[in-house]
């Protein structure tokens, strides 16, 4: 359950800004809640975030939010860190990068398909909260189009359809793809893409390797025409 709590805190930071706007509107301050005003203090943000996740203990909340070097810098700079701050973020994020124990960054694409489609993990405050003993999924389709046969797709992130067909399967591309999924902020400071790998996050290193294969493998439906992939 602890991992689920921590994961939800990470994923729900996007929603917290919206919740804060709602608080401002309820307080009779619609102007401050408009799209043009981003002057939200760290104190205000943390207050609303804590109120939104009353199930998390103070220690759990601090581990995921207050003690996060990257989040502190990105909040302070509105996602625009300077060169020195960027170096701090990259050093911090790269220090937490881990790889599968067998050293293989290219796993089983069929398992990767399962992890990419799966939405299990990270829910808190529900009577049927996710079972921490069950493998988590990445819920990739919440933000991306990937397999052209999958019935749903998000558009917050870029389309990943034909990802491997367009990029190939070179060792540098495999490493880039793995690291992008494991921790996008190790490559793009203040990236909106959540960290998926590591302690307190949704996926194991092996699951990340499987999703890497799902995106890159020529036999994966990601890289086949829709009618062919559907056979």
H and E order: HHHHHHHHHHH
- Counting DSSP H or I runs of 4 or more residues, the number of helices is 11
**Which structural category do the helix and sheet elements fall into?**
mainly alpha
Count the beta strands: 0
Content of β-strand = under 5%
Q: What is the level-2 CATH architecture name of the largest domain?
A: Orthogonal Bundle
Task: Offer a few descriptive terms.
single chain; 231 residues; mainly alpha; Cytochrome Bc1 Complex, Chain D, domain 2; 11 helices; 46% helix; globular; disordered N terminus
How would you describe the overall organization of this protein?
By secondary structure, this protein is mostly helical. It folds into two domains: 2-95, no CATH class; 109-229, Orthogonal Bundle (Cytochrome Bc1 Complex, Chain D, domain 2). Helix content is 46%, strand content 0%. Helix 1 runs parallel beside helix 4 and helix 9 crosses helix 10. The longest helix has 14 residues, at 13-26. The relative contact order is 0.15. Residues 1-34 have low confidence and may be disordered.
């Amino acid at each position: 359950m602890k991992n689920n709590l921590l994961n939800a805190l990470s994923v729900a930071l996007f929603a917290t800004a919206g919740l804060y706007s709602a608080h401002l509107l309820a307080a009779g301050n619609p102007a401050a809640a408009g799209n043009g005003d981003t002057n939200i203090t760290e104190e205000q943000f943390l207050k609303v975030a804590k109120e939104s996740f009353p199930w998390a203990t103070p220690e759990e909340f601090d581990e995921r939010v207050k003690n996060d070097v990257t989040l502190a810098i990105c909040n302070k700079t509105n996602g625009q860190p300077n060169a020195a701050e960027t170096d701090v973020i990259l050093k911090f994020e790269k220090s937490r990068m881990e790889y599968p124990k067998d050293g293989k960054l290219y796993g089983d694409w069929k398992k990767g398909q399962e992890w990419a489609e799966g939405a299990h993990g990270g829910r808190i405050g529900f009577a049927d909260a996710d079972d921490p003993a069950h493998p988590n999924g990445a819920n990739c389709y919440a933000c991306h189009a990937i397999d052209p046969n999958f019935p749903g797709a998000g558009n917050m992130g870029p389309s990943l359809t034909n990802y491997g067909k367009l990029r190939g399967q070179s060792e540098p591309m495999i490493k880039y793809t793995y690291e992008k999924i494991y921790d996008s902020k190790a490559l793009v400071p203040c990236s909106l893409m959540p960290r998926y790998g590591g302690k307190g996050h949704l996926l194991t290193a092996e699951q990340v390797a499987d999703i890497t294969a799902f995106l890159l493998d020529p036999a994966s439906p990601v890289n086949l025409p829709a009618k062919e992939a559907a056979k």
